[in-house]
Amino acid sequence: MEYSQVILEMLERIKVLENKVKALEEKNETTQIIEPLQNNKAQLEKVSAKYRKLTEFLLSSGKMRICLTYPQIEEILGFSLPDTAKKYKQSYWANTATHSYASSWMAVGYKARVDVDNETVTFEKNLY
């Protein structure tokens, strides 16, 4: 077998493997969206119905870090954030169990960090 023919066969095998990897990645993306919702039913029950859409959004994203603007959060929730969320940003977005709405991100392993100047909230998945 000629050297060039060996290279062509190897390239063809690589192409086949790349297609298989792509198919697996697409399947994995779908699984990452569905499985968290199924595996976290107990956590979802801890979240008030009012803020559950945010919880489901975070879970279905499958991302470790998500940055959202206030309007994006309001769109996800389906209602306007209270004035306290905009007036007392640091305390509203505090990661504390005493705020029932904070369970919408904490119950599924995220912590919130607010950027006061840009009115954005970054939700980061806890690694511990």
3D structure, described in words:
It is a single chain. With 128 residues, the chain is of the alpha+beta class. The protein has seven helices and three strands, in the order H-H-H-E-H-H-H-H-E-E. The protein starts with a helix and ends with a strand.
- SSE sequence, one letter per element: HHHEHHHHEE
Helix content: 55-70%
Counting helices, strands and paired strands, the structural category is: alpha+beta
Uncertain stretches: 30-37
How much of the polypeptide forms β-strand, as a percent range?
5-15%
Largest sheet geometry: 3 strands, antiparallel
Query: What strand order characterises the main sheet?
Result: 1-3-2
Provide a quick synopsis of the model:
This protein is of the alpha+beta class.
List its salient traits.
128 residues, alpha+beta, three-stranded antiparallel β-sheet, 3 strands
Helix-strand layout with pairing:
Elements: H1 3-39, H2 41-46, H3 52-61, E1 65-69, H4 70-77, H5 83-87, H6 89-92, H7 103-106, E2 110-115, E3 120-125
Antiparallel strand pairs: 1-3, 2-3
Helix pairs in contact: 1-3
